[in-house]
Structure formats: C-alpha cells, structure tokens
Design goal:
The complex is a heterodimer of chains A (217) and B (363).
Chain A (H helix, E strand, L loop, with lengths): L6 H24 L24 E7 L8 E2 L5 E5 L9 E2 L8 E5 L5 E7 L3 H4 L6 E8 L5 E4 L5 E3 L11 E2 L5 E7 L7 E11 L10 E8 L1
Antiparallel strand pairs in A: 1-5, 2-4, 3-12, 5-12, 6-11, 6-13, 7-10, 7-12, 8-9, 8-11
Chain B lengths: L3 E2 L2 E5 L2 E5 L5 E10 L3 E7 L5 E8 L3 E9 L8 E11 L6 E15 L6 E7 L2 E2 L4 E9 L5 E12 L2 E7 L3 E3 L4 E8 L7 E10 L5 E10 L3 E6 L2 E3 L3 E10 L5 E12 L2 E7 L3 E3 L4 E9 L6 E11 L2 E12 L13 H31 L1
Parallel strand pairs in B: 1-9, 3-9, 11-18, 20-27
Antiparallel strand pairs in B: 2-4, 4-7, 5-8, 6-7, 8-9, 10-12, 12-16, 13-14, 13-15, 13-17, 17-18, 19-21, 21-25, 22-23, 22-24, 22-26, 26-27
Classes of the chains: A mainly beta (217), B mainly beta (363).
C-alpha cells in the first residue's frame, strides 16, 4: 500500500507545529499581545438577585401519643413522660414514648418564641393532684441565645427557659426563647412533656393544645 | 391520649419598614406557607388602619395583600410595630400543637415640630492614614429643616485640638443628609481621641460623641505577675495590648530574672497573634528552683512581627507560705488514765506501808 504522506512532508508539518507552539508560548509568557478569552462584549456586567426574608417554624417532631391506658388500682398515680417513663407498677396499657416535641426555625430570620397551652393539668387530666409539665433543651448547641447584632443570636446557654427539670406548663403565653437561631446546625429546640395521672382523673379523650408563636425580631 | 398533629408555618416578607406619611396608603403583599388550614391577621399598633385582601388561598398556603391607610395623625411619635401573622387552626377532637408566625411592619412616626437625630461614622486608623468621617443627619420631625450646620470637634484628653464646620444644609421631613470630611494623614499622633458632633438647626441642638484611635506599630506590657515563691513551680501571667490597627503576627516574650547583669533564670512564652487593639494574657509556669529570696530585675524582651523591644521591671521572690504545724496535744482520755494510774500507785504505797506498820505492831 502506497504511503499517504511522505516523510519530508511529515517533517515539515512537525516543524511548523513546533514553531506555532513556541510562538504561542512566548506570547503567553511575555504577556504581549491580546490574550484570547471568552470575553464579554460589554465591560460592565450586572448580576442582580432579590433574596426574600422568610420567617418560618416547624414542629419537626410533632406527635406525642401515650395511647389508651389506665392507672393501676394499687397505685396513686401513673407518671408518663417523653423520656421513657412508664412504670408498669403504676400504669397499664399506655405506650412508652421516648421522644419529645421538636421545634425548628426553618426560615432565614431569627425569631423570639412564646409557648402556651390551652389547658391546665386540672383541665387536661383532672383528679387529685394531677400534673402537666414541660422541660426544654437546645437540641442543637446555641439554638437559643440572646439577640446579637444584625440577624444573629449570640450564645447564651441559659437564654432558653424551663431547662433542666420539669415545670408546670403555662396557660398564659410565656417567652421561652428570646432569640431562636435559623442557621444550621443550631436551629432546633426539644420540648419534653410529662403528665401525672391520678386514679381519680377524668376519663375519655382528653384534649390539650400547645401553641408556639414565633415573632420576627 | 390522642396524638399531637404536625404543624409548620412561614411568612414572607418577614419584615418591612415604613415612614409615617399622613393619609398615605401602603400596600404590601404577603405569602403564607404551611401544612394545614390557617388564619391570616394583623395585630398591634396601626392594625386598626389595615384591611386584608385575599389574593389566593389554598388548604395550606395563600397570598394576601395588606392595605395600610395611614391616619391624619398618630401619637406617640417614634417607631411602632404592627404584626402581620398567620396561625394554624387546630384540628378538632385531637391534642394539637399549633404553630403561629408573626412578621412585622415597623412604622416610624415623626416627632412634632423640629426633631433631628445624628449618627457618627469614624473608624480606627494607623498613623499615616487619613481619617474618614461621615455624619448622618436625619429629620424625624414633622417640619422641614431649612438651615442646619454641623460642628465637629476632635478631642484629646478632653481638649479640643481640631474643629471642622459644615456648610449650611436643609433636610425635608423624613429626609436625611450625610456630611463627609477627612482628617489628613499625619495630622493626628497615635492615641485615643473623641469626635464630638454638634448639630445646630431650628430645633433643639443635638450632640453625639464617638471614640476613635490612631494606631502605632507597638505592643504594650499591661500587667504581669510580680511575686513568685522560691524553689517551686509558679503560675506566671503577663498581659500585653496591641496599639496597632492591624493584626500583629507572632508575638512572644523572653523573660529573664536578673541579679545585676547576671541572668539567674529565664523563660520564653509561647507565641501568639494579636488582632487589632487586642489585649491578651500569656500564661505559663516558671520554675524558681535555686533562686534565693529577694528583689530582682525582670527583663522582658518583647518580640512582635520583626520588631523587638526591651523593658525592665521588678519581681519579688518570696518564701512559700507553709501551713502551720499542729502542736501535739494530749487527749483528755489519756490525762484521766494517767491521773487514775498515779492515784493507784499512791494507794498501793499507802496500803503497803500500812500493812508493814500493822505487822510490826503485831510482832
């Protein structure tokens, strides 16, 4: 088979390619001449974006269900909470709950949060010495703090109210957090619940509503 | 018990800022997103002047238009917040959690007559840099200001060292004016200054003061441990402060206890960086084994960036404070036993002598 291109022609093409490459390299290194790029035809470019401020809260864990049950005849009370408390010696047939409510600030603005319930322990459970209590905790470090400069919350572990031990819920609106942060991973608060049901409690379906009101600050 | 139902709700925009204009109508559109049915409402100051139009509303979201018709007048003046809110409706027959969200509209109501406020903007600099000053004046009164002037005074140790006067200017109600000036480089020596701005106009004169600093590339020794115990390992602290308006890298100190020109003991602190004007304490331990009690010179060689400076201070090496040794005491029970033993010995001697006497008598 006859060769398509002679060795001489191949050498010439090679020399031409090397020369062009060397010229390009020299131009690049010395910076002389215009560099060819994908340049814009206009010297000024404008990028505009309008980011909307949105305030939003979300009960990401929103269900507490102790089911149906009763207080044992031999016991005075049955205590149930969202941390697994469900003593079989006192309580019968109730579900054991191991997770409390969880509130997330899923907007892009810090907010102050108020809590209230629509029923006291007497109204919700009834009987002799009933209890309806909550206990709050930062599910993520620094979720609740003090208002800082701009749209920030400054760290203050004690800013969140009702921490550490169970306290009686409030039927009046109470500020539980002055600055609830929206930045991940510091934007969730846990609310554990505890109830004490006496033997002479009210029976049937009992209703209580926990309201979280978030106000932009 | 019945379950708690899911709830989440959001409002956009979260906030709005308006100037009070008599009889003016503002229109703001809101978007609500949630997971279940909700109610949209306004509350707080000015809410009685609003009407809400529902643009669209689905089972869990909606768009609303809030019309705010400003009244002829509003008292008191100042900033007021009206809340624009959405609250989920509880599900019937269940134990619910409800989420409610409140955005706000802040309305700035002007003060009667002439009322201006001012705000000073001045930053720390380093020596050799110009000092840029901006003073913002805002007319928060109901009347237009037609003739205002600013007088800026630079104070050092409460003495006025420089004065700058503005031209006369006018500001309409709700309007603003920004006065900008520059103090040339090298006019002020390094140090701490106050900038006082006085506003003179038809109303009550206003005055604001702001502090600023002119930096020099230096680090000062602010405090240090002056006393250590001999023949022991002592905690030692030395506090330094940057006088520079930029970061200073690699600050450390060589410390030497000297008796005349002879170095008795020396240590080097760990290196650290200083942010502008930062005060920082360097802590370490100093072993004083073999250093006799007495007063010594403490030589501090301070290294910062490529600079070095030496300072001589005093340090005292003292005896450690040992707890007092307890004097041995004889327990009361031992004393009683000793008394009984002595009495027994006396009785025994008495009885032996008495027996001997009786024997002699009988014989």
């Amino acid at each position: 088979m006859r060769s398509d291109i002679s060795n001489k022609a191949l050498t010439g093409l090679l020399a031409l390619a090397v020369t062009i490459s060397m010229f390009g390299l020299v131009v690049y290194l010395t910076g002389s001449g215009d560099k060819i790029t994908g340049a814009a035809t206009s010297p000024v470019a404008l990028a505009r974006i309008n980011i909307t401020a949105k305030a939003s809260i979300n009960w990401t864990v929103n269900s507490v269900d102790w089911g149906t049950g009763l207080v044992n005849e031999t016991a005075q009370y049955c205590v149930l909470n969202t941390e697994g408390e469900n003593n079989a010696a006192n309580c019968s047939l109730f579900n054991t709950v191991t997770e409390g409510l969880r509130l997330e600030n899923d907007g892009n603005r810090r907010v102050a949060v108020n809590f209230s319930v629509n029923a006291s322990a007497t109204q919700f459970i009834g009987g002799t010495n009933p209890a309806f209590e909550w206990k709050l905790a930062n599910n993520e470090t620094n979720a609740c703090g003090d208002p800082g400069p701009g749209n920030t919350c400054s760290a203050n572990a004690s800013a969140l109210q009702y921490q550490g031990t169970y306290s009686t819920v409030s039927t009046a609106s109470v500020e539980i957090c002055p600055c609830f942060d929206f930045k991940n991973p510091s934007d969730t608060i846990n609310t554990e619940l505890q109830i004490r049901i006496p033997t002479d409690s009210l029976t049937g379906i009992r209703e209580a509503t926990i309201t979280a009101v978030a106000t932009v600050i | 018990m019945t379950p708690v139902i899911v709830c989440a709700i959001g409002i956009s925009p979260a906030d709005a800022y308006l100037q009070f204009v008599p009889n003016h109508e503002y229109v703001i559109d809101y978007s609500i997103s949630g997971y279940r049915d909700f109610e949209f409402y306004t509350e707080g100051a000015f809410s009685e002047f609003t009407t809400v139009e529902t643009i669209s509303k689905g089972p869990s979201s909606g768009n609303f238009r809030v019309y705010l018709n400003m009244p002829e007048d509003y008292d008191p003046p100042g900033k007021h917040r009206m809340y624009v809110a959405a609250r989920e409706k509880p599900s019937p027959g269940a134990v619910n959690t409800i989420a409610a969200i409140r955005g706000f509209i802040e309305i700035d109501v002007p003060y009667p007559g002439y009322y201006a406020v001012l705000d000073i903007g001045v930053n720390d600099v380093n020596e050799g840099e110009p000092i840029y000053i901006t003073v913002h004046v805002k007319n928060k009164g109901k009347l237009n200001i037609s003739h205002a002037t600013l007088q800026l005074s630079v104070l050092s140790d409460d003495k006025v060292i420089k004065t700058i006067n503005s031209e006369s200017f006018a500001i309409e109600t709700n309007g603003g004016y920004a006065f900008q000036t520059t103090i040339p480089e090298s006019e002020l020596k390094p140090g701490i200054y106050k900038l006082k701005a006085g506003l003179f106009y038809e109303g009550e004169p206003r005055e604001e003061t702001e502090e600023f600093r002119v930096g020099t590339f230096d680090v000062d020794i602010v405090n240090y441990t002056r006393k250590m115990f001999n023949n022991s390992i002592n905690p030692f602290e030395i506090e330094v402060e940057s006088r520079w308006n930029n970061r200073i890298d690699t600050v450390y100190m060589d410390l030497s206890i000297k008796n005349g020109s002879a170095v008795i003991s020396s240590v080097k602190t760990p290196p650290f960086d200083l942010i502008p004007w930062q005060r920082r304490v360097s802590s370490f331990y100093w072993n004083t084994a073999g250093i006799p009690v007495g007063e010594y010179d403490l030589e501090i060689i301070l290294h910062y960036d490529d600079e070095t400076k030496t300072e001589n201070r005093k340090i005292y090496i003292v005896e450690p404070l040992y707890p007092e040794e307890e004097k041995p005491t004889i327990p009361i029970s031992t004393v009683i036993l000793l008394v009984i033993a002595v009495l027994l010995v006396i009785f025994n001697i008495y009885f032996v002598l008495q027996r001997k006497k009786n024997k002699e008598k009988n014989s």
